[in-house]
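Dear Dr. H.,

I hope your travels went smoothly. While you were away I took the liberty of generating a structure for the chain from your last submission, since the lab meeting agenda had it listed for discussion. I wanted you to have the full record in hand beforehand rather than looking at slides cold. The sequence, exactly as received, is reproduced here:
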Amino acid sequence: MRDLTPEEADHLEVIIRELSRPEARDPKLNAVLYFLTEHRPEGRTWLEHGCIVFSQYYDTAFSLARQLAVLLAGEPVAVYAGVGKSGLLRGEHFASVEREEIKAAVKERRVRLVLATEAACEGLNLQTLGTLINVDLPWNPSRLEQRLGRIKRIGQARRNVDMLNLVYADTQDEQVYRVLSRRMKDKFDIFGGLPDTIEDDWIEGVERLEAMMDKYLHLRRQARDVFELRYQSTLDPDQHRWERCARVLSRRDVVERLSRPW
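The corresponding predicted structure, in token form, is as follows:
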């Protein structure tokens, strides 16, 4: 705090004062609560389908979990985060538990609401949950896909899973998300149509972001063209379709094929 300029300190004081008002309430909390308890796809709320709520930040995830545990009286709320930070909330009581216990409770449907940080992005199977909410969005398309992959897995009971992304209106986040959302709706080839990460200097404005992503896509298409020029004449899509595979390759067959020079 000692390094703050007087102007920065004044801005922080205003923020603290506004957030401390009794009537102040995060609109994202209202949105999450609405979808958990009132929105009913297929005749059931998102809580009844089971829901994982993601945040990049532990403090945000824990604060939201604590508020939801109080508002959803009797509903156990899990916090899945880094080592030593995970636990279960029942009302205002928090008990620290191991992450393996949380995974087991979700699998056995004893817990249907999980607040998670990026610690849950990889290696976690939660296909018993049918909905996902991102309360904040990383500027990293692959991270969003990893989050969705926690529930969109073999064993998921729902034909389609629901995902809600929350951003504050009229912010840079909203502009970035609008670009990503539009592009993620497109069909991409095996080389992908979105970068793994978005560089900070791309976020100078929507025009620059669009231009840099177009440049990325152009380079990927060039790579695809080189691939097709090299292999198109030797590949027969019908012959190599997996669903028509007539035999299982032995280990020797696999080694022989992978050993062929390019």
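Two observations you may find useful: The longest strand covers residues 51-54. DSSP finds nine helices and seven strands in the chain.

With kind regards,
E. W.
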